[in-house]
Amino acid sequence: MPTYGKLDSFDESEDWTQYVERYEHYFNANEIDEEDQKRDIFLSVCGKNTYKLIRDLLAPAKPGTKSLADLTKLVKDHRDPVPSEIIQRFKFNSRTRHSDESVRTFIAALRSLTEHCNYGDTLNAMLRDRLVVGIKSDRIQRRLLAEPNLTFEKALEIATAMETAEKNAQDIQASGTNGTFQKQINKVSKSYTRNNSGNSKQGDCYRCGGNHLAAECRFKDAKCHSCKKKGHIAKKCRNKSANGNLSENHREFKSRFKPRAHFMEQDESSESENEVYSVFHFGNKSNEAYKVQINVNECEIAMEIDTGASVSIMSEDTYKEYKSKFRIEPTSAKLRTYMGEQIPVIGRAIVNVNYKKESAKLPLLIVKRKGPNLLGRDWLNKLQLDWKDIFSVVGSDNQSSDLNVILEANKEVFKDELGTVKGMKAKIYVDESAVPKYFKARPLPICGDYKVTVNAVSKLDNYPIPKTEDLYATLGGGQEYTKLDLNQAYQQIELDEDSKRYVTINTHKGLFRYNRLPYGVASSPGIFQRTLENVVQGIANVLVRVDDILITGKTREEHLNTLSEVLSRFKRIGIRLKKQKCVFMAEEVVYLGFKINKRNLSSGE
């Protein structure tokens, strides 16, 4: 019988699931049905590194004693642990179409991102929403938003049809370029006119480069970001060519600042009407809002910087909060959303604006709509913002946003209450021949001295407590560190009914029994260590030493995935943490008397 296909050893750069799928297709094509034969073929061809990994993971058992399904699952669990659903959904909701990406390629990328999102029956609805929001084409987006009862299939059909039509139109226009060019050779440009002095060309405006007279330029009072002089913008600055480059602040602004998702620009159909586009993005670093605190009429107002907005606006909520500070007047200005919906304008105010050492009287539109206050180009032209300060604040916010999503999703873990580990109760094993001892109540805080009672006659739980040397093996390659602090650690584990009698204490109000695992019992550390290790079993980069837990990762994403999984398990099993004593994503922590960072581990406080 001929053999179809060829089996290769596993390449570390390949996805393990895809590799296993290729094996399954090979077995089907060659009608190999015997499970033992499948396993032996797999072990013979998978490669020496993969075989060694399987042996190490199974030791002391041998690979030949397991089924193929068990072996492939073993490697998958080791190589590709199930990622955090929260992080995967965040990635999906942050994905937008790239400028050189086709609609169908964009959809394929979205489908790939949904693998671990667990959307279930809502998958098509989520794909539809992400297609509409992330399409990055105003024309297609408006068409999709105008479609009633839009389904994913319909949205994909419309988007691909419009994309194809646009490409076809470009091809047609390109084919007619040569003929058009010939007609233009002898055509006199309208920009050339005669005046009394004999000059034939109006020329570019020296203030901004536009095709108009400099006297009519709207930037004649603007301040240049390069030389700080009035009368032109940095693009046409003459000092720029003489001095070399733009100022450091302006270079950083040009390289890092992208227009936000709110655009406000002059409508071609009306000189008094502006258009506002409000497209909501999910907070990834590339489109994170740049905000600045501005003193407006002696009120500290947070404003979102928007280079796409020609005017600055204040939301109705902010206006109501500081209403007594503003005197507004009627205005003919009109604002519209990208759907053509008009946003009511409450009025216009001339306000005193102060920012650091700068001050100016500037116009401000107040709108009857919730949302951010926008600092538009009219204010940007008058104020010299401290871009370095703004960028540093946003960078800090970006770094904490992913962490906040995880903490919010697991906020139950940080409730100010005593946790209760579900599904298990601690048992203390005492010699049956032991005789109870009586001690009179002490005039001290209520506690039990178990050294002379239960510890002397009980079987010690010798579950191994990790040594400090284990830090090196677990924390190698870590970049940042999270330290978790349990709230009344031992007492989150309940005692079984029979064990309660062994921890009876005498008080001035009589005899009482502990219902939960108390401190001072010799077996408590081992019981607690075993319990926590079972909870976090299978999660890499987690170190547990009784009630001290340390988490790290070779990358920030790996660290967040690990933290998310640990907190998720704690929430599911009922463990509670003391948030004010936890440390999250720190570059350096002190753990068990050691100072730990990505460079070294040293003794310190």
From TrEMBL:
Entry keyword annotation includes Zinc:
yes
Q: Where is the Peptidase A2 domain?
A: 301-379
Single Gene Ontology MF annotation: aspartic-type endopeptidase activity
Can you cite a GO biological process for this protein? proteolysis
Top-level taxon: Eukaryota
A Pfam family cross-referenced in the UniProt record is: RVT_1
- Its recorded name reads Reverse transcriptase domain-containing protein
